[in-house]
Amino acid sequence: MPPPPAAEAATGPGDPLLPAKLIYGLYAIGYAVAITTLVGVVYAYIARGRHPVLDTHLTFQIRTFWISLLIAVLAVVTMVVGLGFLIWAFLAVWGVIRVLSGFLLANDGKPVTGTKYWGMMAF
Hints:
Elements: H1 6-9, H2 18-29, H3 35-47, H4 52-78, H5 84-107, E1 115-116, E2 121-122
Antiparallel strand pairs: 1-2
Helix pairs in contact: 2-3, 2-4, 2-5, 3-4, 4-5
């Protein structure tokens, strides 16, 4: 029997990027249930060191969490002057693009090699 195509191999049970995909899912759910984002970042710290490509995604996800937290704090502080709502909107768009672009790379079995568009999109 011939080996499965690369696309099928990247989604199988032995997928080294499965933790990254799960964390991207937890981050996406985090827009409705915030605690899943915290669970995701803890899992990202725990899963490090298993695979070099996985580590690029985990670093990206950990940075996404901490940068999002800093932007959220800035949004709360600036709500008093009305600027916070714009910052929240930026954070939402920024976060969704990071999660989607990272997930698409993980689904293709590719590492995160950098970001573009103000750190929004992984490539």
